[in-house]
């Protein structure tokens, strides 16, 4: 084919059919979906062909990035998708809001630093961890979410089925590993050792977020010994941001607020107006 020769198929057949086929082959679904509408808009606006093509390609790139982010979110296996838009910072005064918003930029992942969120139950630690995980997905990082108990179960099952090394490699490859609820369930000695190995293998290779309802001095209750606890904390806290989240239960406040709103709604519905047919006066009950 010379520089003046058109590709085979361009000069024969229905243009729309051929274009649909070629765009599917090139995996450009957004261009396929939008090219006619954008063509009409550009024709009405007197926009030239290069700018028309630029607009289409920009739409494709935006849509492709959106689909990529959605795939990362699905791969992370979040129990729910949470963002900081729905988090009430005022409910947890002990939490450093400026630090959290800085961490949401996800630059700590580039530095392979960790985050530990400590506080009593119901103060929003999981919400913060999920929101940071979502932000990381949006910034292009791979994320995996699990609870400490679930992770230990996975590790023990993998060990029994002789696929532990593969699981450990997969966990090590993730840019951000989120381990929620450390301390809620005591671990067996074997489970504690496997969890320690997972954190050790990620040390200075990837970022880890850990949430716990226990202060550091009580981690020995979960990890079954001071030696293992000390070694684990040494690795986790070498490069770390610690989020203190003590206070009244965030979840209980939300629940109480919903109950109050429902009660007010019921009271409003209970108010009725009665019109006296003789006087025309209106009374409420």
Shape: extended
CA radius of gyration is 28 Å
The CATH topology of the largest domain is given as Rossmann fold
- As laid out across the biggest beta sheet, the strand order is 2-3-4-1-5
The strand count comes to 7
Assembly state (oligomeric): single chain
Query: What's the SSE pattern?
Result: HHHHHEHEHHEHEHHEHEE
Sequence stretches where pLDDT stays below 50 over 5 or more residues: none
CATH architecture verdict of the largest domain: 3-Layer(aba) Sandwich
CATH superfamily of the largest domain: P-loop containing nucleotide triphosphate hydrolases
Tally of contiguous helical segments:
12
> Regarding CATH, which class of the largest domain?
Alpha Beta
What is the arithmetic mean of pLDDT? 85
**Level of helix content?**
40-55%
**Tally of distinct domains:** 3
Identify the notable features of this structure and list them briefly.
5-stranded parallel beta sheet, extended, two-stranded antiparallel sheet, 285 residues, alpha/beta, 12% strand, Rossmann fold, 54% helix, 3 domains
SSE topology:
Layout: H1 15-25, H2 29-45, H3 49-76, H4 97-103, H5 107-110, E1 114-118, H6 125-138, E2 143-147, H7 148-160, H8 164-173, E3 176-182, H9 189-202, E4 207-212, H10 220-223, H11 226-236, E5 240-244, H12 250-270, E6 273-275, E7 282-284
Parallel strand pairs: 1-4, 1-5, 2-3, 3-4
Antiparallel strand pairs: 6-7
Helix pairs in contact: 2-3, 3-6, 7-8, 7-9, 9-11
Structure write-up:
The chain has 285 residues and is an alpha/beta fold. It has three domains: 15-70, no CATH class; 84-244, Rossmann fold, CATH 3.40.50.300; 250-284, no CATH class. Helices cover 54% and strands 12% of the residues. The chain has helices at 15-25, 29-45, 49-76, 97-103, 107-110, 125-138, 148-160, 164-173, 189-202, 220-223, 226-236, 250-270; strands at residues 114-118, 143-147, 176-182, 207-212, 240-244, 273-275, 282-284. The strands form two sheets. It has a five-stranded parallel beta sheet. Helix 7 packs antiparallel against helix 8 (164-173) and helix 7 (148-160) crosses helix 9. The longest helix is centred in the N-terminal third of the chain and has 28 residues, at 49-76. The N and C termini lie far apart (88 Å). 25% of the residues are buried. The model has no long low-confidence stretch (mean pLDDT 85).
């Amino acid at each position: 084919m010379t520089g003046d020769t058109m590709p085979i198929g361009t000069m024969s057949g229905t243009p729309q059919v051929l274009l649909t086929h070629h765009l599917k082959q090139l995996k450009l679904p957004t261009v396929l979906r939008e090219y006619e509408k954008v063509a009409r808009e550009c024709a009405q606006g007197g926009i030239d062909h290069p700018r028309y093509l630029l607009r289409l390609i920009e739409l494709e790139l935006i849509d492709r990035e959106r689909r990529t982010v959605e795939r990362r979110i699905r791969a992370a296996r979040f129990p729910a998708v949470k963002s900081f838009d729905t988090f009430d910072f005022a409910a947890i005064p002990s939490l450093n809001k400026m630090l959290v918003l800085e961490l949401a930029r996800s630059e700590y992942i580039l530095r392979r630093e960790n985050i530990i969120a400590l506080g009593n139950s119901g103060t929003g630690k999981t919400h913060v961890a999920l929101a940071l995980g979502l932000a990381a997905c949006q910034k292009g990082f791979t994320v995996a979410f699990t609870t400490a108990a679930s992770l230990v179960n996975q590790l023990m099952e993998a060990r029994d089925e002789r696929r532990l090394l593969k699981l450990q490699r997969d966990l090590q490859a993730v840019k951000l590993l989120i381990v929620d609820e450390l301390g809620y369930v005591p671990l067996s000695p074997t489970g504690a050792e496997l969890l320690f190995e997972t954190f050790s293998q990620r040390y200075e290779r990837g970022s880890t977020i850990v949430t716990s309802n226990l202060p550091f001095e009580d981690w020995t209750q979960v990890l079954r010994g001071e030696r293992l606890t000390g070694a684990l904390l040494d690795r986790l806290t070498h490069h770390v941001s610690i989020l203190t989240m003590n206070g009244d239960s965030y979840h209980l406040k939300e629940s109480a607020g919903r109950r109050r709103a429902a009660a007010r709604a019921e009271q409003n519905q209970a108010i009725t107006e009665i019109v006296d047919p003789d006087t025309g006066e209106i009374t409420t009950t």
